[in-house]
Amino acid sequence: MRWRGIPVDVLLAASGVALDVMTTWHAGESEFLPAGSNLPMALLVGLPMGLVRRLPLPVSLYLAAFLVFTDQINSFSSNTAQILLLVATGVTAHRGVRHATAAALVATGVATALNLADPGIALTANAWMYSVGLSVFPVLIGGYLRGSAGRLEERDLTPDALLAAGGVAITVLSTWTDWNASAQPVWVIGLFAVLGGLALGVARRLPGLVLLLQAGLLLAAEAYFPQAANTCLLLTLIVIGVFAMRVPSWTWTAVAYGAGCLMASIAVVEPVTEVTPFRVGVLMTLVATPVAIGRYLGVRQAAALTERLRAEQSARLAVAQVRADQLAERERIARDVHDIVAHHVGAMVLRAGAARYAAPEGPVAEALNDIRETGHQVLEDLRGLLDLLRDPERQPGLLADPADVVRESAERVAAAGLVVDLDLHPAADQAPLVVRASAARIVQEGLTNVLKHAGPGTEVRVSVVPADDGLAVEIRNGRPPTVMERLPSSGRGLAGMRERVRALGGTLTAGPDGDGGWLLTAGLPGPRSADPAPKPGCVRAMKAGAAG
Question: pTM (2 decimals)?
Answer without folding.
Answer: 0.40
